[in-house]
Amino acid sequence: MLKAKYESEDEIPEALKEFYAPEDDKEDGPWWLQIEDRELETLPKVRGLATANKENRKKRDEYRRKAEQYDELKALLPDDVDPATIKDLIAGANSGDKEIKAQFEARIDKLKRDHQAALENVQGELGQTRAQLDDVARRRALRKALRDNGVDPKHDAILLDHLGSKVKVTADPETGERTTEVDTALGTVDVNEFVKDWVKADGKPYLEDAKGPGGNPGGGRIPANMGAKNPFLKANWNKTQQAKLPLERRDALARAAGFKDFAAGMEATSART
Predict the structure, then answer these.
(1) Torsion of CA 162, 163, 164, 168, to 10 degrees
(2) Is the CB of residue 71 less than 8 Å from the CB of residue 86?
(3) Handedness of CA 187, 192, 196, 198 (dihedral sign)
(4) I need a surface site. Which of 79, 113, 114, 171 has the fewest CB within 10 A?
């Protein structure tokens, strides 16, 4: 029987040397018996090996496909779905029985929908939380600026809403720390600078030392037609019109109707006079 391999040329019998060649043309061997590929495939052991190799390749491809299915499905499902359940779902979805396959595919689709709905709900809650944090930062910065510039705290209920809409809040994506600023025609300024300019232009009636007789901003002057159009009076009670009152008249009109200030009047559900 011919040997398939010799470690060196010297080991090969002289009469058989023409049937051997070094591996990859290496002169120092090893030396292998040369057989044509077509003849090699007909050898029983080689044929069995080739068949087994083909089967192994098929299994490898099947495992790879299932692994890809597993990874894809796992990415779409909630984190608390255990691996055994995922494998069970994949096995069912790959079933040859059409009814079983349909049932498992329906289960997978429902899990995906439920997961997406839960994800959207969490995202919505996060969005609300961010908005609330923005509002807290906005009001804190604005309230401090109002105090620093001498605005009477009793006007905060009005001014925090009126001026707050102009304050922009930016959150650091890494730390979550929030900064506040205001965009103006002359560029971006901090909130304190914005309030300072607002007080000079429009806010003097709201300063703590700007009270006139009766505690009304603006020297206690009340427009002559206040009674006819005062939405805080019983005859004119109208919550929508109250909210639309100009800033410079709100407190005066509310006090004229018997309320402490505009905020107290807005909280009331009925007129006093």
Answers:
(1) 140
(2) no
(3) positive
(4) 79
Per the CB < 8 A criterion, the answer to whether 262 and 254 are in contact is yes
pLDDT at 134 over 70: yes
Q: How far apart are CA 40 and CA 17, in angstroms?
A: 19
Closest residue by Cα to residue 83 from 91, 75, 74, 92: 74
Give residue-wise pLDDT tens across range 249-268.
Answer: 888 888 888 888 888 888 89
> pLDDT at residue 191 above 50?
yes
The contacts of residue 36 (CB under 8 Å, 6+ apart) are: none
Judged by DSSP in three states, 10 sits in helix
In a 13 Å sphere around the CA of 164, the CA atoms on its Cβ side amount to 17
Q: Does residue 231 contact residue 253 with C-beta atoms inside 8 Å?
A: yes
Taking a C-beta distance cutoff of 8 angstroms, is the pair 150, 204 a contact?
Answer: no
Looking at 98-246, list the stretches that DSSP marks H as alpha helix, in order from N- to C-terminal side.
98-148, 156-164, 191-198, 226-229, 239-243
* 178: its two tokens: 């929030």
Give, rounded to a whole angstrom, the gap between the first and last alpha carbons of the chain: 124
Q: From start to end of the chain, where are the E strands?
A: 5-6, 20-22, 31-33, 167-171, 178-184, 187-189
**Chain centroid to CA 80: how far?**
20
pTM, two decimal places? 0.38
Question: Residue 232's closest CA among 259, 207, 199?
Answer: 259
In angstroms, rounded to a whole number, what is the distance separating the alpha carbons of residues 252 and 216?
Answer: 6
Q: Which two tokens stand for residue 24?
A: 């990859």
Range with lowest mean pLDDT among 22-26, 35-39, 197-201, 257-261: 35-39
